[in-house]
Amino acid sequence: PDVQREDAESDWSADSWSDYGSRDKPGTTLGRTVPDGNVLFPDIFHTDHLLFYERFRAYQDYILADCKASEVKRFIAEYLEKVLEPSGWQAIWRTDVFEVLVGVVGVNFPALKAVVQLSEPFLCESQDSSFTLECMQELLELKEHQILLQELWVVYDESGEFDQTALAIEHVRFFYRCIWRTWDEEEEDEFDYFVRCVEPRLRLHYDVLEHRVPSGLVVDYQNLLSQCEELYEKFLNVRNSISSNDSDSEAENVSMVEGLKLYDQVEHLKQKLKLIENPLLRYVFGYQKYGSLQAKGPRPTGAKVIHVVPWTMTASLLRLLAREKLCPESCEDLEVQFHRDPLAAVNACYEGDKVIICPGHYFVDGVFSIADSVELEGYGLPDDVVIEKQGKGDNFFDCTGANIKISNLKLVQHDAVEGILNVHHGKTTLENCVLQCETTGITVRTSAELLMRNSDLYGAKGAGVEIYPGSACTLLHNGIHHCKEGILVKNFLDEDYEVPKITMVNNMIHNNEGYGVVLVRPAMPSEMKDASAQESKVLRLKTINSRIFLMMWLLCMTVGDILFPALGNTQPTQAGDETEGSRQEQPGCVTDELELYKQAQTSEQTENNSKIANALGATSAKKSKIHRKRLSELGFTEADDNLMSQEMFVSVEGNQFKWNGKGSFGIFFF
């Protein structure tokens, strides 16, 4: 073993070990931690703090490389043979019911197990007193003294001799806890296992740790994972029962039908998990986070209140408020309440209340959850009434009220995970506002409605506006700029979702990194074939055109040298004078060029609007066709008008698209 270990270490350079400690350096490079509990266990290595790039590098370069799912266990065993000390170290064996100190006397590498014996003195901590020395010895005999390596936590040693052992076991433990799925081995394809499964799941794990994924989406992922594991276990049991029974009985047929049904359910859940694991598609998966948020309804007394939030209250400001906002002719006895910050005012609102926020810069640590029909109005220009988010959190504004209006405010978002404003239910009107975003901008969820008018939105690292299926979104005279994408429209072509209703008029969508407007939808098999054929055709045409151009250029150069041998002796000053003279003879030339340029720009913008409307309309038509087909299969030959008129309502007029990185409009297939 010593010779094999030296050969293995010589295969890897010293630089390869720089992130994980080196045997050539005296002393350990890892930290230590004190185990919890009442028993005085020795300290253990602190290895669960590794950074993303450390785990990424270990799995990609040293452990898994380009292996297939069926080869994972063998690759891990080969890695452990190179780095793991085969004996002579202690560890704490941890299970759900007990912890006990053991000594490692050998390693079964193919099985990923350690051969252990109880240490002296006997140290054990359990939930009850039944785990005595005799009981633990009997348990080890039943296991043939072999336990899984991932259940061991290596005892701390200052010499550094067991650093690689502790790190290797940590990598194995993390892999089987956070990366590996029981169904992975059955999903062989042309991609290696690291690219297909390890990297996206590893990124998701660290995105969750660093609060870059909404908490609601994390809960959904864990629930989906639990459901999938449970259903997959049932599927395996049914499949094994069919395999062990060769009879062609009625019970066998029933089991086959049940197995197919379970298989379809598992595949459906696996696709949802892959959507969340993929950072590009993560937010395509919609989740209902605030369905349980209840509205207060009308105030018990039936009265409506105006809530005033002053940064500083002066006599002149109070007189202006009283004259313009607080004392309308029809409501002389209207109740007025004063608050120190906008969040407290919104939390005090009932149905029909109004919040007036005076000029000032307000810092808020919390989420505005608006479940009633209330109105928030800034008293002044948006730049004078600023609400800035402080502290980490999922989002900033969550709207579920039937009719919410927000106007004359500037919202500034920091350290958020979700968008600056989420419309989950009901209608939200946003007018004359400025939104400085951090992640995504405004999200219009299924069955929600947004009316955004005369507002400015910028800075989103995702899309400025995300429009979900089954929603309604009206955008009038807005600026959406300096975002990852301008407007993102999601259409799933699924029977559970209606197409969104979209109106876009006179918006300026510019300086976005990607497209001005992008449609996200699943790709149909026919479209994938057509796209592949079109790509091949374009590539062939480009190659042919390049060759023709090269031949024509060579021909022109040859003919020019033969017919005009003295062309190179032309005086540059004479040519310049002639050009200048010809320009002076046509003074209206520059004006005409400018006019033609303006006409070309107008034509281009009109074409962009038409392109977006046509593409969204075509998607709507495809959705309607699928819907009609399903109705026909169910036996409905004549459908109700309301049922069949689920076309995407699209009005795209007068919008300007400028300086967007990928163009005005694009379609993203998944």
What portion of the residues fall into strands of 2 or more residues? Answer: 15-25%
Which residues form runs of ≥5 with pLDDT under 50? 1-24, 562-590, 634-647
- Report the radius of gyration as a whole number of Å: 34 Å
What would you call the structural class?
A: alpha/beta
- What is the arithmetic mean of pLDDT? 79
Strand arrangement across the biggest beta sheet? 10-9-11-14-17-20-23-26-29-32
Largest sheet: 10 strands, parallel
Give the N-to-C terminal Cα separation.
50 Å
User: Percent helix among the residues?
Assistant: 25-40%
Shape: globular
- According to DSSP, the number of beta strands is 34
- The helix count comes to 14
Oligomer: single chain
Subcellular location: Cytoplasm, Cytoskeleton, Spindle; Midbody
Domain Right handed beta helix: 415-519
Function: May play a role in signaling pathways governing cellular proliferation, cell growth and differentiation. May be a component of a novel signaling pathway downstream of Shc. Acts as a positive regulator of FGF signaling in neural progenitor cells.
Main location: cytoplasm
Please, could you describe this protein's structure?
Its main location: cytoplasm. Residues 1-28 are annotated as: Disordered. Interacts directly with isoform p52shc of SHC1 via its SH2 domain. Interacts with TRIM71; leading to enhanced SHCBP1 protein stability. Interacts with both members of the centralspindlin complex, KIF23 and RACGAP1. The protein has 14 helices and 34 strands. The strands form five sheets. A ten-stranded parallel β-sheet has the order 10-9-11-14-17-20-23-26-29-32. Strands 12-15-18-21-24-27-30-33 form an eight-stranded parallel β-sheet. It has an eight-stranded parallel β-sheet with strand order 13-16-19-22-25-28-31-34. Among the domains are: 31-194, no CATH class; 216-286.
